[in-house]
Amino acid sequence: MKIATAAYPLDVLTSWAQYEDKLAHWVAEAAVQGAELLVFPEYGAMELATLDGADVAGDLEKSLYSVSEKLEEADRLHLKLAAEHDVHIVAASGPAVTDSRPVNRARLITPSGQIGVQDKQIMTRFEREEWCVIGGNALQVFDTTLGKIGILICYDSEFPLLGRALAECDVICVPSVTETLAGYWRVRIGSMARALENQCITAMSSVVGAADWSEALGQSFGAGGIFCPPDRGFPPTGVLGVREVNAPGWTIAEADLAQVAEVRADGVVLNRRDWQDQVGRDGKAINVALR
Question: For the domain 2-274, what is the CATH code?
């Protein structure tokens, strides 16, 4: 399949129609290039808070609830576009209010009209200490007409056991937003490591550029990237496609899921199968004095 990952700038929106036009343009641009799976970034939905004015968009707490109130309508728009272009869309994540505190929620929208929901598992320090966003539902494996798809939102991609929980996935999507180049590289390295361990495809999307109206987002650094196991039939770098940092637009690459199955069965190495060989060897290391 062809996968498209977004390097997505956030806008100050003055009307819902402006948001509809923006999203329709992005989806159509990827679809016309043959993309079948489109991945938007973490907290890309925060631009919806600007519809309630600068005071709301710039307030940490108010912005969470403002966006949460608009996610259902945003999902209806994604459903319409997914059906129109016959594509699967990982919608930009945003806060979804639960009984206690908001979670960070991404949604996988199918052209047949279904919605899969994936919440972030582990919060960054900002989310935990300042925004008070909490972890949400369990990790999901979405069995789609394209293949088995999972989602690790940004920081989640940096944890191998979360990746291992998605070992059945052919593709793991990694929506991200990072405020520094170091943050971008942490998520990119995590995405590449998960592709190595699971012998699968990972697709990283990013928010890019300035959002000075938001105390939460500010300036973001990132790029679209599509990664693979560096094994037989794939690029030796483990990179199927990557964009220049902070260059808005789509990164699009062909991902051969038959080749994923091939390297899992008979690769030069078998990381996914051999994961279990760590068990029993992963206790505390023995200290050996060589002074």
Answer: 3.60.110.10
- CB 263 within 8 Å of CB 45: no
CA distance 187 to 153: 10
Q: pLDDT value at position 100? A: 85
Give the tokens for residue 126: 């900002």
Q: What is the tens place of the pLDDT at every residue in 183-209? A: 999 999 999 999 999 999 999 999 999
Residues of the chain scoring pLDDT < 50: none
